[in-house]
């Protein structure tokens, strides 16, 4: 689309002409105007959302922030090019813009590049963050904090529901594929395919137990490969056992990988396979909630992680094993993961806990009252109030998204300090400080421009000292 009209935004620092943008002062796009733009990308009308998301994408491209695949970095690890780094994959659920800004502040401070921002299929639904919105918010946060380089945005647990699959397998597998179409179009160039829900432990052999898992994962993997933009190999992960069940074994890993590689090679010759594999080592998503609302300490099996990561690298050329459900582990355990060869660790619930712990009591009470009505069917007879609210409060993140985004400045400032400390701690413990050069060595993502959606951008300039803006 050719445009003749010139639009000047960010006090003239950004010019839109002929469907392309130019930036005269990169420091201004990292200012309060970005706060206004990202709010339009999330809460505006449809035209405002479309235009704001396009503008965020193009500004990111212009300043050197590119949605990227971590595939080549992981494959280099599978070849022994580096070790002792565990990439944190951070699920950003609530107060997404402010939370992501804290991630990028920590990354800038520690010169970190090897980290992932992700959202799962289930989270997309209950947090009300479709891929297009999520990617735009992550990019806006990166721009706001002056981050530069590849940005790894991931679809976590693109999972098949075993119950729905049993009723209509084609429809359920198709739903995951359609989500992948939407996600890749938004800039998700890393996707974890979770068909581990289809493992059938009643079958007599490991190969038979993993057969449906293997078949569905290989089929979805081949489909996603067909969605790849030019110059990008999407990073794909598989999963051999559902998180929260029995610990994975070397025999299960080999049965899964042998079956997957054989089937993919036969059905889609020459197609790139997986770069990592998720295993179960004793954790569960969200942790196990005790009657007082605290989290039961788990006995994580670091030996399992070490063994399976070693097999994944040496026998299959993968980056290693992936650890899920780890954010609620005690702080003193995180430094152990790099030494086990764990290539990636997924962190979600504890950041959500911090959000609920810091919000004003009045908002928390309002959310809990909503849960009493809207999630009452999920309450078990044995649940205490603490257990019930802890397990269900994530379901309120979507309905209360705007109120959470609009929390008072003093709450956000306190939250920012807490998140800065937590992300900085985790980045050091997982040994990703000073990984920006490592990422730059292996990850090369081409610029990717998109057509301007409307001749007249439906974007409103707001005064930079607007009291309602987050800072």
Task: Write structural notes for this entry.
The protein is of the alpha/beta class. The protein contains 19 helices and twelve strands. Helix 2 (32-43) packs antiparallel against helix 7, helix 7 (131-144) runs parallel beside helix 9 (169-186) and helix 11 (250-267) runs parallel beside helix 12. The chain starts with 6 loop residues before the first strand and ends in a 29-residue tail after the last helix. The model is unreliable at 1-5 and 462-471 (pLDDT under 50).
Features of this protein?
12% strand, 3-stranded antiparallel beta sheet, disordered C terminus, TIM Barrel, disordered N terminus, alpha/beta, 8-stranded parallel β-barrel, 471 residues, globular
Mean pLDDT: 92
* Strand order, largest beta sheet: 5-6-7-8-9-10-11-12
SS-derived structural category = alpha/beta
Query: Regions with pLDDT < 50 over 5+ consecutive residues?
Result: 1-5, 462-471
